[in-house]
Amino acid sequence: MALFRKALAVAAAVLSVTTLGAGVANAGEDGAKAVLRYTEHGIPHIVAKDFAGLGYGYGYGAATDNVCELAKIYVTVSAQRSRYFGPDGEGYPSLSEAKNNLHSDLFFQQLNDSGVVDRLVSQPAPQGPRPEVRQVVSGYVKGFNAFLARTGRSGITDPACRGAEWVRPITEQDFYRHFYSIAVTGGLGFVTEGLFAAPPSGAPSPAPGTPAQLSASLRDGLGKGGLGSNGIAVGADGTAAGRGSVLLGNPHYPWHDGRRFWQSQLTIPGRVDVAGASLLGMPFVMIGHTADAAWTHTVSTPVTFGLFEVPLAAGDPTTYVVDGKPEKMTSREVTVHVRQADGSLKPVRQTFWSTRYGPVLNDVGGFPVPWTAKSAYALRDANATNLRGLNTWFELDQARSTADVVRALSRTQGVPWVNTIATDRAGNALYADIQVVPHVTDELARTCSTPTGRQTFDADGLAILDGSRTSCQWGSDPGALEPGIFAPARLPQQQRRDYELNANDSAWLANARAPLTGFPRIVSEQDTERSPRTREALLTAEAGKFTTDSMKKMLFADHSLFADLAAADLAKLCASFPDGRAPSSSGPVPVGPACTALASWDHTYSLDSRGSLLFQRFAARLANVDRFSVPFDPKAPLTTPNTLNGENPDVRKAFGDALVELRAAGLAPDARLRDGQAVTRNGERIPIHGGQGFLGVLNVMTPVWDPARGNTEVAHGSSFIQVVGFSGRGCPDSSTLLTYSQSANPASPYFSDQTRLYSRGEWVKGRFCEADILRSPALRVVVLR
User: Fold this and answer.
1) What does the DSSP 8-state code read for residue 205?
2) Is the N or the C terminus of the chain less surrounded, counting Cβ atoms within 10 Å?
3) What is the model's pLDDT at position 258?
């Protein structure tokens, strides 16, 4: 407890002290729940003597910065959006794909009425939360509520919810429902709209989609809201010093709503000391480092749900047949209350249907799977019983080595849909896709797939199996914590001394020198084309000896691999157009200075690069175009495909359409990136560097294009960035950046301060060790009692 007592002593000595509950002079060790030491940019270093106090400090601090966003989360998972916002407003895409508030409420009310979260919470670990996790959660809820009690609704400074009746104290049930919604975001959360299925009425059923349409639906995000990431772990052999390690954690997450990160350090002296960031409302560091190990996550490729097609009994569309025996579907009618125009509330009811495999659905992300008189489709979500992830991140927060990371992942088996990339002080680099994956072997898929499933499994790893046979159920492993998922020993993991990485491709080339092969298709594909971003990461890792400084410079160089592959050819194509006019959908368009800009472009998405905007708008049109003339070669996966296919009329027209689009936005073909890519915060225009992942830019920024003004907002992209180095016995050498800043409240001083840093290419010095924290010129102490 020495550090806790010291923190209190510092609180009494520092001038910028806020004491909530009693005077600092009386803040003895037994009287304080937590001490928050704020350093630059509003980053809290939370110290407590127990887990309940740690959760309390986190809950109070998180609410201070983001009470409105957190309140939106809790009103969503409690199925109350229609009560407060009306039925027709947009749902909450951070937690489901529901198209409006009514569907969001019906979806969550169905989950709440099922009692699934309550049943999981009631179980002991490993299925339920371990005791320390329960203590953290209890403290978090009390801390959030303490902030709300202190400010009151009218005292909230954020105009998004000041005085709003939907801001309320929360319960532990709210917290657990929130985590559950995160766990199922790639399954139930993805197919939300499809769950509003009704038995066939005799009217013609919609035509089923094609496997190609389903593939497009899956590849369009799989319900993960534009989530992506880079993780590069460099071991001792890949460092400039030949010892220690360097980790880049670079998640690409939404800049708005409930999937924002919030940064903190969490310390219980002698028990846990971890720094990093977590998704809003999660009082554990989810991406971060301890004194001796660092880790990050990247969204993985396994599809975490599967479909079962069940034949129906003749004349009874709610009875299905398994092994020749009829079995009735179950139904659940749920009710939500919807605000009317006059302010009154009206009950709305919806019936949901389910089978032994899971809920019946008629749509998968826009792909129709009709419920007909002959058959229906049911979904099984491998994360439908996963509250174990809370234990996973609790254990990761105490890791001291990459071996500890593997043990935490394997023991808890709670990571829902991400890979893990890690380093440690001993110089190890780790890649591990130890996560929840449906136990569908290639043999099971061959034996049991429906005709559509044969194509979707090979192309995308989505199993659509014959639900009429019990022999076609998902398999089991002895080492798995529950039936139907692969055990950790069956999943990809590799530890090396040079590097391991992932950029949202499969496990195959986590290291180009040591491919990971031989896994079931649903776990990982191999010998397939890598994305431009993965190729950029691999070429970068292969090229060089890293320091923390060189890793930071590499990321913010904003280099585009796709530009290397195509920009010179595009400049030549531009110069070849007759009369200096390119074809477009609206007729020939003058190329103007475009050819010169492309020929002299440095192939980066830095703020002053010219030609980058034109190339961005051009490349955005090539998603379904045969763009390369040299095809992919599995023997040369880092260098193929390549060479722009300038003979393709669609490529030529895409260039002309990009010119038209830029000019309509008032931007010249040789405009600088800063001229056409920015965000506005409190009236200040802040230019944003970086580019989309399809450009092969590691520092991903996915902007929102305004046809009249250019890129005027960021939808998702680099969010919480960390570079952590270990060498010798000193404090970790860490730098971080939360690109959109700590607070969503425009009245906060931490609303856009780090966004301005990001624009300038600057970083925040990591303050992990006690001496660094106390040296902060911005040190401010809050004692919670």
Assistant:
1) P
2) N
3) 95
Q: At what angle do helices 51-77 and 172-183 cross, to 10 degrees?
A: 70
Residue type, 562: F
Backbone phi and psi for residue 644, each to the nearest 5 degrees, phi listed first? -60, 135
Q: Name the nearest CA neighbour of 118 among 379, 385, 356.
A: 385
Q: How many helices and strands in the chain, by DSSP H and E?
A: 21, 35
| Cα–Cα–Cα angle for 527, 528, 531, rounded to 5 degrees | 135
Q: Is 506 a catalytic residue?
A: no
Sequence-separated (6 or more) residues with CB below 8 Å from residue 479: 487, 488, 489, 490
Distance CA 307, CA 317 (A): 18
Which alpha helices (H) appear in 115-264, and where do they start and end? 116-122, 131-151, 172-183, 211-219
Element (H, E) at 107: helix 101-114
Kindly write down the DSSP assignment for every residue of 295-312, as one continuous string: EEEEE--S--EEEEEEEE
Q: Are 161 and 67 in contact (CB under 8 A)?
A: yes
Q: Which residue type is seen at 160?
A: A
- Characterize the bridge pairing of strands 43-47 and 261-268: parallel
Instruction: Kindly state the tokens that stand for 652.
Output: 């030529």
Catalytic residue among 229, 468, 506, 741: 229
Place of tokens 């670990």: 125
Beta carbons of 565 and 642 less than 8 angstroms apart: yes
DSSP 630-686: E---TTSTTT-SEEE-TT-HHHHHHHHHHHHHHHHTT--TT-BHHHHBEEEETTEEE
Cα first-last separation, the chain: 17
Structure token digits, residue 575? 């110069």
Q: Which of 324, 71, 309 is nearest to 178 (CA)?
A: 71
Q: What CA–CA distance (Å, rounded) separates 478 from 490?
A: 11
Tokens of 405: 């990371």
Judge whether 211 and 227 are in contact, CB under 8 Å.
no
Spatial neighbors of 10 by CB under 8 A, at least 6 apart, are: 37, 774, 781
Instruction: Give me 477's structure tokens.
Output: 């492993």
How far apart are the C-alpha atoms of 558 and 190, rounded to whole Å? Answer: 31
- How many angstroms from the chain centroid is the CA of residue 460? 20
Helix axes 561-576, 612-619, angle to 10 degrees: 90
Tokens of 266: 């969490």
Mean pLDDT (10-residue bins), the chain, 785 residues: 57 49 40 93 98 98 98 98 96 96 98 98 98 98 98 97 98 98 96 96 70 70 69 98 97 96 98 98 98 98 97 97 98 97 96 98 90 97 98 98 98 98 98 98 98 93 97 97 97 98 98 98 97 98 95 98 98 97 97 98 98 98 94 98 97 98 98 98 98 98 98 98 93 98 98 98 98 97 96
